[in-house]
């Protein structure tokens, strides 16, 4: 890898590590931890029934958040972002949400370290990757074990809307076959990295003409 390529990878890695930290500053369905319990307690104190303050952001908590948001003139999306958190908790939202941000940073760091590795059909090692082999290998380095194919990966984790993508999410495309036939790792700021058949492991714009037209969804694994 040349000097320019090494600099580019270093720059993207530094940017994405910052982005993951920032992106972690929101609480939504599926999150767990003491901060979620504090949110539930505060909702209950204000008369919004979030159920038991058990630290698990489930459907009842989503409903309570939406009711709170409607009463305060906010978009009722059920996600505790900056504005909702400030109004509810009376302080600024924490920058880091929980251990998932650390895991996402590790996954992105690993993913970027293999930029430039050539494509190999069926490849699952740094000698050559195909798209799902690359994703499987990168996640396994952080102790997260995924299925071998893109269509099986599409059934993992939880669905994520385009507007709520966070670094570390898996992004899927319909390319050579109908359905999820290509998978990559979202880096933040509209970019993702994947093992392409023509250029190997590279970073691309999610909304580019080619990829944007073939994007079919995303899943959050960590």
TrEMBL record:
One of its GO terms (biological process) is proteolysis. GO terms for molecular function: cysteine-type peptidase activity. InterPro entries: NLP_P60_dom, Papain-like_cys_pep_sf, Peptidase_C40, Peptidoglycan-bd-like, PGBD-like_sf, PGBDSf. Keywords: Hydrolase, Protease, Signal, Thiol protease. Residues 1-25 form the signal peptide. Residues 101-222 form the NlpC/P60 domain. Belongs to the peptidase C40 family. This is Putative peptidoglycan binding domain-containing protein.
């Amino acid at each position: 890898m040349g000097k320019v390529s090494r600099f580019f990878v270093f720059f993207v890695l530094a940017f994405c590590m910052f982005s993951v930290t920032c992106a972690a500053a929101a609480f939504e369905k599926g999150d767990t931890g003491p901060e979620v319990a504090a949110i539930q307690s505060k909702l209950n104190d204000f008369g919004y029934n979030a159920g038991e303050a058990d630290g698990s952001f489930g459907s009842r908590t989503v409903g309570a958040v939406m009711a709170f948001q409607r009463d305060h003139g906010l978009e009722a999306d059920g996600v505790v972002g900056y504005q909702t958190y400030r109004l509810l908790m009376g302080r600024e939202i924490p920058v880091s949400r929980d251990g998932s941000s650390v895991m996402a940073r590790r996954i992105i760091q690993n993913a970027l370290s293999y930029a430039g590795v050539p494509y190999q059909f069926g490849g699952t090692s740094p000698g050559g990757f195909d798209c799902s082999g690359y994703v499987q290998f990168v996640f396994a380095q952080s102790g997260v074990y995924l299925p071998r194919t893109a269509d099986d990966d599409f059934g993992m984790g939880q669905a994520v809307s385009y507007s709520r993508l966070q670094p570390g999410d898996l992004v899927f495309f319909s390319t050579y076959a109908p359905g999820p036939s290509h998978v990559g790792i979202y880096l933040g700021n509209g970019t993702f990295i994947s093992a392409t058949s023509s250029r190997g492991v590279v970073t691309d714009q999610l909304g580019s003409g080619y990829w944007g037209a073939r994007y079919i969804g995303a899943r959050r694994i960590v």
